Amino acid sequence: MLKPFVIPVIHHLDRATSLHQCKTAIHAGADGVMLISHTGRDDELLQVAAEAQRASPLFPVGVNLLSMKASEGAPLAKKANLSWFWADNMGVSSRGLDQMGVAMHRFALDHPEMTLFASVAFKYQRHEPDPVEAARQARMAGFVPTTSGLGTGQ
Question: Can you give the pLDDT at residue 151?
Fold first, then answer.
């Protein structure tokens, strides 16, 4: 039986809390962490994530930067030397890649050391008629398909 791959999502409140939660995830045996800010403080989030990544270079740290497009956020995550980048809209669906998806596919090819997580059939997105095909399209583009379904936990 395969071991589940566990990536806690840390909802950034402040530097101290987020760093403490990263340490807790490491000690609990998580496979990495994603940080996200629902208050638009993505500049601060990047600094905290970079600090967590420097403190534990073998532990993958990623961000979801909600205040910007994937094509804007991924280069910032790369510049911060983060392992992972996740976007709610990476430009991929069951129809294939849109303009954003093509740009992000190029980014993935140019930076194979970074793992890109692409939301498919995700809450707040337009209805996805074929989630399996959307996930296949994401994999073909070099992304890890990620979903919430209709809502977190669904």
Answer: 65
